[in-house]
Amino acid sequence: MYSRYLSRFLTMLGVTHPIIQAPMAGGATTPELVAAVSNAGALGSFAAATLSPAAMAEGVQRVRALTDQPFNVNLFILEQPAVDQAELAAAQALLAPFRAALGLPAATRPAKFCEDNQAQIAALLELAPPVVSFTFGVLDAATVAQFRQRGSFVIGTATTVAEARVWETAGADAICVQGIEAGGHRGTFLGDFEQAGIGLMALIPQVARAVNVPLIAAGGIMDGNGIAAALILGAQAAQLGTAFLCCPEAGIHPGWKQRIAQTSDDGTRLTRVFSGKYARGIVTDFMQQLRPFEHDVPAYPIQNALTAEIRQAAARQDQLEMMSLWAGQGAGLARPMPAALLVQTLADELTIALPGR
Ligand SMILES: Cc1cc2nc3c(=O)[nH]c(=O)nc-3n(C[C@H](O)[C@H](O)[C@H](O)COP(=O)(O)O)c2cc1C
What we know:
CATH architecture of the largest domain: Alpha-Beta Barrel
Order of helices and strands: HEHEHEHHEHEHEEHEHEHHEEHHH
Largest sheet: 8 strands, parallel
Strand content: 5-15%
Number of domains: 2
Distance between the termini: 7 Å
Radius of gyration: 19 Å
Number of helices: 14
CATH topology of the largest domain: TIM Barrel
Bound molecules: flavin mononucleotide
CATH superfamily of the largest domain: Aldolase class I
């Protein structure tokens, strides 16, 4: 069905279709979603970045119980943050009105700002899922080699040619190139953030020229035509996040699903007010009201920890305007349907769009 070169890559990954359901931290990528995608012949991805090693192991066990097909487990690459007390107090003061509006008590210092990343990586090595992927940084070559020795296929995320080269040097099996269209957090870890905001159409061919590993394209891809375009530009697979958020198996608030399907082409924006790291989401009151302080809030993961209770309380109270409604620029093209049907629909569309490739 696919060309020889593409088929070789799919054989390496162990999947039938050049389609990856993106890892999406925060509970979106339930084991049910991951397994449904993998059972349908694409690659499901379980997001583990915000989970403790024990919770990660439990999630992976559930995925394994639901599918015997390959699946991916994703982590961030993070350092423990240096917390400045004055900066923390200023950030908490900015958030105080939102806490009050939701009936939350005055903020205290969070017990922790993020999971122990080294412990997560060690636990993932033990779990040795068929595929592992990383964003926000790069692993050292020795750790990449350890994953490969344990039989895990390693994917690194890049938003520029320079980042792709670094991952290639570290020994990655494939690189996920994330365009500026992408929903959720940007993986940028080298250089100037704004200069790294490259559109996928310009990014894929430039990375393809620079590195010798297979590429996975991510950002704004919502249908088989988009996947075909990414393949024509030089990618070997496409990673779709927002398209899978509207599946019944995705573990997000129903109001968020509704808003995705109603979003227009200009309905999303990059913001760092939720987490301290730029991420793309549907424009909300929270984003707009804190927009003047966009550059003042502490860096990830500090701001992320400070807004956690607000985001959780907002979800419990159906206050969508105070939630982080992450979505990519193609959100309005989302089609709510079961994940297996979405994979089949995308594969059918791709076959029509790429006859004989
Ligand atoms: C809700 C949400 C959460 C995300 N969380 C992660 C994550 O945990 N790890 C990761 O590598 N990428 C994450 N991403 C980015 C995706 O991997 C991917 O780059 C993006 O969804 C592609 O753009 P699209 O949403 O337009 O398809 C997230 C994206 C969304 C929408």
